[in-house]
Design goal:
It is a single chain. It contains six helices and no strands. It is an all-alpha fold and about 170 residues long. Helix 3 packs antiparallel against helix 4 and helix 4 runs parallel beside helix 6.
Length: about 170
């Protein structure tokens, strides 16, 4: 093996240093205050965004119950998409219970090839739970009531699966 002749190191110029002042500017406290104000505004807007998503869920659910059997799956797919968006918002803005209920709903929809009336009833129970949580501003994990709600949703999912001869959920 031959030895390399020499190694030359190249350091590119730091153009950012000239653009960013090293003194003055906003203080850390002012930056924190501005961030808190922006977060409070987003918190208010997020509730409005979640409410719009809940209205979409209710609309698609109503359409699915009235739709011809071949059109139900399209509405359920839209419910699934909206629920994914809602889960993301809820998790970021103090509504983890909506995220848990949404996760249960998405898992149920993704695992169900047949969408009969019982399936739509289970979807309705999930959507109704999300409506109640948001309408009552139940931020946080819901405590003991939240645990009972999630357990009731698991029972509804398991019952619907049992009617189709499918295994229960892994709780």
């Amino acid at each position: 093996m031959s030895q390399p002749a020499s190694v030359r190191r190249f350091t590119p110029p730091n153009n950012f240093r000239a653009k960013v002042p090293s003194t003055g500017g906003i203080s850390l406290e002012e930056m924190q205050q501005a961030a808190d104000i922006a977060l409070a505004k987003l918190e208010t807007e997020s509730t409005e965004w979640m409410q719009a998503d809940v209205e979409k869920l209710a609309s698609h659910l109503a359409a699915a119950t009235k739709a011809a059997p071949e059109d139900v799956a399209g509405h359920v797919n839209e419910i699934n998409k909206v629920t994914h968006d809602l889960k993301s918002l809820a998790g970021q803005f103090s509504f983890p219970m909506i995220g848990h209920v949404g996760n249960s709903l998405c898992e149920f929809i993704n695992g169900e090839p047949e969408l009969g009336d019982t399936r739509l009833d289970v979807i309705r129970v999930h959507v109704d739970a999300i409506v109640v949580i948001l309408a009552n501003g139940l931020a946080g994990d819901g405590g003991e009531a939240g645990e009972h709600l999630l357990a009731a949703l698991r029972k509804a999912v398991d019952k619907a699966r049992a009617q189709q001869g499918e295994p229960a959920t892994a709780s």
